[in-house]
Amino acid sequence: MVSTEIAVTGLHFAESPTTGPDGRLYVSDFYAHQLLAVDPSTFTTEVVAEVPGQPSGMGWLPDGTQLVVSMRDKRVLAVAANGTTSCHADLSGLARGATNDMLVDTAGRAWVGTFGFDFYAELEADPAADPLFGPGANPPTADLIRVDPDGSAEVAATGLRFPNGTVTLADGTLVIAETVGAALTGFTVGADGALGERRTVVDLSTAGVDGAAVLPDGICVDAADGIWVSDPVSGRALRFDAATGTLTEVVTTSQPCFAVGFCGDDLRTLVCCTAESSNPNVAGTRRGGRLETVTVGVGGR
């Protein structure tokens, strides 16, 4: 077990750390409504776009166009080099609740998770509520949406227990973290983008401290098909072998860890996005969010 070093402070709530084609690390700061670029050698940050609808997951089309989820208005935005945004896909007719994390695959298909319920309305009614990580949290199931490169979209999978971080394995399997379901769930992806052969890749129901469940948030995959999983409840990042489901490495963070990704020339720097809480009534009112780093043995793919 190793611990991280704190690289960036002063964020509200960082999510979806992803290395872009230019080699910089990009993160979404939810409650600052900003898309940030981070120099992986100095960890200085730059605002590259404003996303009033609250940014989350991101990725790049094969032509280099950056996409980012705009959560509250349920859109996927294209980000121009000058920071202006335009609508790539409007998911308001498909998404139940806010849109969330996203993976853009090598074919340019964007896989977008949804909340499945009005998370923000629940927090307005009870500002101290924790509908995802709190005791007895049991939100409705939610859908995964596929956005094709032309911006057309359809529901790709239903009945997911809060679909969150998403990766693809070397064999093309799509793996999604089901936060409330305490599992990493895999799908075979057809040539037309249709999902089939749903299966549990890693059962996290007893993988936590003292046999407790791990409720996975963001995930990333390394070159050996090891899946790093953020464990917000215990303030850790965990690596599981996708082939066996075995826990192989544990990293501890200074506060709850909500997302993980890779950066650096060799992609061996694991970046952990941490915050006191994901509740906007907490994280949105103070800048306690951090990027924490540790060097790992196997880098990102």
Explain the overall architecture:
By secondary structure, the protein is mainly beta. It has 2 helices and 25 strands. The strands form 6 sheets. It has a 5-stranded mixed sheet with strand order 1-22-21-20-19, with no helix packed on it. A 4-stranded antiparallel sheet has the order 2-25-24-23, with no helix packed on it. Strands 3-4-5-6 form a 4-stranded antiparallel sheet, with no helix packed on it. The model has no long low-confidence stretch (mean pLDDT 96).
* Amount of beta strand: over 45%
Q: Helical residue percent?
A: under 10%
- Return the structural class: mainly beta
Shape estimate:
globular
Largest sheet: 5 strands, mixed
Cα distance spanning the termini? 23 Å
Order of helices and strands: EEEEEEEEEEEEHEEEEEEEEEEEEHE
Low-confidence stretches: none
Strand order of the largest sheet: 1-22-21-20-19
Put simply, the count of helices is 2
Radius of gyration over C-alpha positions, nearest whole angstrom: 17 Å
Output mean pLDDT.
96
- How many DSSP E strands? 25
